[in-house]
Specification:
Strand content of chain B: 15-25%
Structural class of chain B: alpha/beta
Largest sheet of chain A: 5 strands, antiparallel
Number of strands of chain A: 9
Largest interface: A-B, 20 and 18 residues
Shape of chain A: elongated
Structural class of chain A: alpha+beta
Strand content of chain A: 35-45%
Distance between the termini of chain B: 77 Å
Number of helices of chain B: 23
Strand order of the largest sheet of chain B: 3-2-4-5-7-6
Oligomer: heterodimer
Helix content of chain A: 25-40%
């Protein structure tokens, strides 16, 4: 099953490689990983999307907690949470595609953020599945380039990951 | 830096030395080189600790590791950048797998040269990341003291392990004021000490209701200094105890409640009791593949498992556990004994003991002695007798290691020093060095094979330089014995590259370093040779025992098999009925 794990760690050089190294060394799967400093610049917050059996997820959480630089780990799937990912898609905007691209962009509540000769760049935010659905809905021949940030997650209401 | 601070500022190198002295380090095992020259210059000027010059960086780390195993203190090694650092990696990984607290200080190229493919540059933090508890690259002289303090703290607390501190050369020349804090506080690292009281009560209740209880202890019990408390618990309950390879000495081997080591080469009674018990308490042990064999086979028998471990990630990793207790093993055992003392119930398990005694009659460690060829098991039995069971015994890796574990009866913790997790050939001699430095007047024996000893044979020179009276017990069968054994069992006797040809004359080799060398070829000479060697209290003696080439380690559980599926030795009269 897919899990979204959030963690806070010391914002020190090499932190990312410790987490990434742990996943590769123990054969865990990473679907995406995002990281940036928090409002407190001494800490980074990471969102890891992974999958595995309950036993594997339990081990992943324990192993992450074992890393000396990791301050707190939260499996967002243990409660209610919100997941968002940003995607930029460059599509063809030549006559044959233009109207269709604008329409799809509207349906998915995306925004066209760059218009060039023959192409649009669409910005779209949502859960991973929504972004997948958008890609699925587009005419494949229209897609020039896509880039996704990987998911960021946050607990709903008073589920707060803070020290 | 204000003018007052400027006056009291010292170099990074001197800070390193002061920190080590502050940590009351007695020995630093190391090897100099370019990137650590400033540090070595400060070593020359100090007399707080003794620096031990090894002949290869791997041995420095192994010796520091053994020093820690034999004393419980943090071991320290110092190496230069590049090849010095990479040579240390095997030692670091060995300590990591067995959770041994050591601090390894490595030199690094100057900060501006990092990433420039400089001479003797290697990304030590990157290289060691998967095999350390933690590592640091110090990029500011002001951080040296705080980092070293943290390194010692992290190495020794929680589940112990190696910590690497990588220090660029220019940083050791920069100046800073020396401030060493007495305590460490880290918001990201707070190991749990005390076990959960509710879980502890539950565990005692389960233990008292058990019909077929079993106590299984590992390296964690020894490292956590919980032996005394465990003995108290086991004796009060009168339950059988087994130790893992790493846990030997955790419970006295000569005690009647001890059923021997368990696992791939464990005794029949230990493995059968482990498989057939109904309540199992694991103490600082991790159900690893060499211990329980096939986990599916192990779980085919229902039992309730209580697991005490300081590392939550060791719990329910290979085997699902019913009552996890996360905490420092000693503190948990103290509390267990307190709870137990308030209980009035005595649990009579005489039926279970009867069953175990029946298993004991299989005599799974029996071997047929010979008067023409030296049996390796016999050498270990005699070693135990001659040293009165009171030696520090180090071993390398292979058949000799298993024989030492099976036939030397360890009654005390921290006496059996071997590489259990990583299985590093070549540790034996440097391990013996670490033990002998730790315990100057103790008997230290290095049980080894002719394959393993040659992996760090250069340390004969270190032993000569420091006059270490180590006794090497070489079980020389002219084969990489354990490889040969597997080839015999699983590869139809195709002994691919497992025969050792062109061996040196070990007697002459030892003598060339100024040591005493002996070769023993007759069984009748074994005891005399050992007595003579151990009587030379201030001499390093290298005993080359020419042993039976065909001897194998039994019992044995083949890969993928379960605990009760043991193969007995050819001299065991129950061999066929048990198959």
């Amino acid at each position: 099953m897919k899990h979204i794990i959030s963690l806070l760690m010391e914002n020190e050089a090499g932190g990312l490689s410790r987490v990434a190294g742990l996943f590769s060394a123990r054969g865990y799967n990473i679907e995406s990983l995002t990281v940036a400093a928090t409002e407190d610049a001494t800490m980074s917050r990471m969102t890891i999307v992974t999958s595995g059996s309950d036993e594997v997820i339990e081990q992943i959480i324990k192993q992450l907690n074992k890393l000396i630089d990791v301050i707190k780990v939260l499996d967002l799937n243990d409660g209610k949470y919100i997941e968002r990912e940003l995607m930029l898609v460059k599509v063809k905007s030549t006559a044959a595609y233009r109207e269709e691209m604008k329409r799809m962009c509207d349906i998915f509540r995306g925004r066209i953020i760059d218009v060039a000769d023959g192409s649009f760049t669409i910005e779209l935010t949502g859960s991973g599945t929504k972004l997948d659905a958008f890609i699925e809905s587009l005419d494949k021949t229209a897609i020039l380039e896509t880039v996704r940030t990987g998911a960021s997650g946050i607990g709903r209401g008073d589920r707060i990951l803070k020290i | 830096m204000d003018s007052q601070a400027k006056k009291t500022a010292i170099t990074g190198a001197e800070i390193v030395i002061r920190c080590l002295n502050e940590e009351k380090v007695k020995f630093v095992f190391g090897y100099p080189g370019g990137a650590v020259l400033h540090i070595y210059d400060e070593i020359f000027k100090q007399n707080g600790f003794k620096h031990i010059l090894v002949r290869h960086e791997q041995a420095a780390v192994h010796a520091a590791d053994a020093y820690s195993r034999a004393t419980g203190e943090v071991g320290v090694a110092l190496v230069t950048s590049g090849p010095g650092a990479t040579n240390a990696v095997t030692g670091i990984a060995t300590a990591y797998m067995d959770s041994i607290p050591i601090v390894v200080i490595s030199g690094q190229v100057p900060v501006p040269a990092i990433g420039m493919d400089a001479f003797q540059e290697v990304d030590m933090v990157g290289v060691t990341r998967p095999c350390v508890k933690h590592n640091f690259l110090v990029k500011d002289v002001k951080d040296i003291a705080a980092t070293i303090k943290k390194a010692f703290y992290i190495a020794a607390t929680g589940r112990p392990g190696p910590v690497v501190v990588d220090i660029p050369k220019d940083i050791t020349a920069h100046l800073a004021e020396y401030i060493y804090s007495k305590t460490v506080e880290m918001r990201s690292y707070n190991p749990v000490l005390k076990g959960h009281s509710g879980q502890i009560k539950k565990a005692i209740k389960l233990l008292l209701e058990a019909k077929r209880p079993m106590i299984y202890t590992g390296g964690g019990l020894v490292l956590g200094n919980g032996t005394e408390e465990l003995i108290k618990l086991a004796r009060t309950l009168n339950y059988p105890v087994t130790n893992t390879l790493m846990g030997l000495g955790g419970y006295p081997a000569t005690d009647k409640q001890f059923v021997g080591m368990l696992g791939m080469h464990g005794t029949y009674e230990a493995n059968m009791a482990m498989q057939n018990c109904d309540v199992l308490i694991a103490v600082g042990a991790r159900f690893d593949d060499r211990v329980i064999g096939n986990p599916t086979h192990f779980l085919s028998q229902k039992r309730t498992i209580i697991h005490i471990d300081v590392d939550p990630s060791s719990i329910s990793k290979r085997v699902k556990v019913d009552v996890p207790i996360v905490g420092h093993v000693k503190s948990v055992l103290v509390e267990m004994n307190e709870v137990l003392a308030q209980e009035n119930t005595k649990n009579d398990i005489s039926k279970w003991w009867k069953q175990i005694d029946e298993w004991r009659t299989v005599k799974s460690l029996v071997y047929k002695n010979s008067d023409t060829v030296i049996k390796p098991q016999y050498v270990i039995e005699k070693l135990w007798e001659v040293t009165k069971g009171d030696a520090y015994v180090t071993s390398d890796v292979g058949q000799h290691q298993m024989w030492a574990a099976q036939y030397y009866k360890f009654d005390k913790p921290r006496r059996w020093i071997n590489s259990g997790g990583l299985g590093t050939m070549g540790v034996g001699l440097p391990y013996a060095m670490g033990c002998q430095f730790a315990h100057k007047n103790a008997q230290v024996a290095c049980v080894t094979g002719e394959g393993s000893i040659q992996m760090n044979i250069q340390e004969l020179s270190t032993c000569a330089q420091y006059g270490l009276p180590i006794k090497v017990v070489l079980l020389n069968n002219r084969y990489l014995g354990m490889v040969r054994q597997w080839q015999e069992f699983f590869y139809e006797n195709r002994y691919s590259e497992s025969y050792m040809d062109s061996l040196p004359d070990f007697v002459k080799l030892a003598e060339s370093y100024g040591h005493v060398g002996m070769q023993i070829t007759k069984p009748s000479d074994v005891e005399g040779a050992l007595k003579e060697a151990f009587a030379k209290k201030d001499k390093f003696v290298f005993m080359d025992f020419i042993t039976d080439q065909d001897e194998n380690v039994f019992p044995m559980i083949a890969n993928g098999k379960g605990l009760s599926e043991m193969i007995m030795g050819k001299d065991n009269k129950h061999r066929e009925e048990l198959e």
